[in-house]
Write a structure and sequence with these properties.
This protein has about 450 residues and is α+β, with helices and mostly antiparallel strands. Among the domains are: about 120 residues, Dna Ligase, domain 1, CATH 3.30.1490; about 150 residues, ATPase, nucleotide binding domain (Nucleotidyltransferase, domain 5, 2-Layer Sandwich). About 35% of the residues lie in helices and about 30% in strands. The protein has 13 helices and 23 strands. Strands 4-3-2-8-15 form a five-stranded mixed sheet, sandwiched between helices. It is globular. The two termini are about 45 Å apart. The structure holds adenosine-5'-diphosphate and magnesium ion.
Length: about 450
């Protein structure tokens, strides 16, 4: 197929956006085309390949991961007829910390208008209170809440009048090595990394309606080896976390209890109805043929195995993350997405054990995605495109780190590193850049 090269020598084509979701079950490459200079983007293709070399969200085998990436990239390229050169990459891993700090600046003795420079200063003042452990780095800097003269809940302080500006800032901290491995693999597979996003943030942007995000909701993306958790209040992420348990643990439980191979357990798991009251016409037993013999399992026993793991995951681990967000109430409820959310009846079951409304969500863009690739397992991938657009629309919303150590190490910081995120907000981010330079000097 004819392929048009999008860019050469690092030039970024403004019309095409590429997202890469590094999952534990599959690698997905989503390609979107911008509809206007500042408008929405339309997804034009989604490539994918089974993910090998990634366990619990972490890269454990570089060669296998690179192979998976190459297959997914090739699949996407064939679908859209383009040569892809760069992507914003979503990744996860167990060691993700979401740290909140506060900052404050005085605007003077008399009330005056808040300027962009003031927002940069207040962000810096909150950043000064973040302590980044050695070997870790800040991946996202997210203003969670602004207050003016003690009045909280200010959506955008720019242009408003006050004497004092306060901020609550969230910093997502991850191991440097984890980011470096992701970056190495993507580059080895032939793409430049134009940005990085933690998976739960991309999934939340891919699933949450504006109303849910404002009233307060929790999004859980149930992947293969991990679950991404994001708690949104007043349109902003209050807490982001990755839990190292996912749908594959359910499969393993089924395989262990029934003493059957993983692929058979995976088939069985998808048949189990977690809705507690047996539905009319639902079979009482599940028949299975394995190595020439027929087996019959009681549906209620299978339901117990699946429910047991899901209950532990949600009542213990996910509840703890929701509590850590500090959100008092989440009237928008729990929104589940990702491959694991396709379990039959899981929404009903979770409504009961979490005692809150539960909605299973497809990607918000599902109606505009290829029909065979528009299910809940593609929410994160579609969310990457929304993340890129959000970042462009409001540079203060998610201040990202595209992590480009080489230029930082060789003196000047180029436009591909932190400054790309901050260039639109001026030079106010230099304390962060300095911190990263310091970190690299310590490391190498
Ligand atoms: N119909 C289904 N019912 C139950 N679980 C499912 C179903 N389809 C996929 N899954 C599970 O979803 C998980 C993969 O989800 P996915 O979002 O694709 O993962 P990742 O983002 O980690 O690559 C696997 O554990 C798989 O067994
Ligand atoms: Mg997923």
């Amino acid at each position: 197929m004819f392929k048009k090269t999008l860019s050469s020598s690092g030039y970024r084509d403004p019309e095409v956006l590429v997202g890469l979701d590094l999952g534990t079950s599959k690698v997905t490459v989503v390609v979107a085309e911008r509809e206007g200079p500042s408008g929405e983007a339309q997804i034009i293709g989604i490539g994918q390949a089974p993910s090998n070399g990634i366990r619990k969200g972490l890269i454990v085998n570089i060669d296998q991961t690179v192979k998976s990436l190459k297959h997914a990239i090739e699949d996407a390229e064939n679908m859209v007829g383009l040569d892809l050169t760069e992507a914003t990459v979503a990744f996860s891993g167990g060691d993700v910390q979401s740290v909140k700090t506060k900052g404050m600046i005085s605007l003077g003795r008399a009330p005056r208008t808040v300027m962009q420079f003031d927002i940069e200063r207040v962000i810096e003042s909150a950043q000064a209170n973040v302590s980044v452990p050695s070997g870790k780095m800040i991946l996202h800097t997210i203003p969670v809440e602004y207050s003016l003269d003690g009045n909280s809940g200010i959506d955008d302080p720019l242009g408003m009048t006050a004497m004092r500006l306060d901020i609550e800032l969230e910093s997502v901290i991850v191991p440097v090595a984890m980011v470096q491995n992701v970056r190495n693999c993507v580059e080895k597979a032939g793409l430049e990394v134009s940005g990085l996003v933690i998976k739960p943030l991309a999934s939340a942007l891919g699933a949450l309606t504006p109303e849910e995000s404002v009233v307060g909701s929790a999004v859980v993306d149930i992947g293969g080896g991990t679950c991404g958790v994001a708690v949104f209040v007043e349109g902003r992420p209050k807490h982001l976390a990755v839990v190292s348990v996912g749908g594959d643990h359910i499969t393993n439980d089924v395989a262990t209890v029934l003493k059957i191979p993983i692929n058979k357990a995976e088939e069985i798991k998808k048949e189990v109805d977690m809705f507690s009251d047996p539905r009319p016409g639902a079979p009482e037993n599940l028949e299975l043929e394995h190595m020439g013999r027929n087996y019959s399992y009681s549906m209620s026993e299978l339901t117990d195995i699946v429910q047991c793991r899901v209950e532990e995951l949600f009542s213990v681990l996910i509840k703890a993350e929701i509590a850590a967000s500090g959100a008092a109430m989440l009237p928008g409820g729990l929104i589940i997405t990702g491959g694991g959310s396709k379990s039959i009846g899981i929404d009903h079951y979770l409504t009961r054990i979490m005692n809150m409304p539960v909605r299973m969500s497809l990607p918000l863009d599902s109606g505009r995605m290829p029909p065979s690739r528009s299910g809940a397992e593609y929410t994160c991938a579609a969310g990457i495109i929304r993340y890129v657009l959000e970042q462009e629309r409001d540079p203060f919303r998610f201040i990202g780190n595209s992590f480009d150590p080489s230029p930082i190490m060789t003196s000047t910081v180029d436009q591909g590193g932190w400054e790309k995120g901050l260039s639109t907000v001026g030079k106010g981010g230099h304390s962060i850049i300095d911190a990263i330079i310091k970190l690299f000097k310590e490391l190498f």
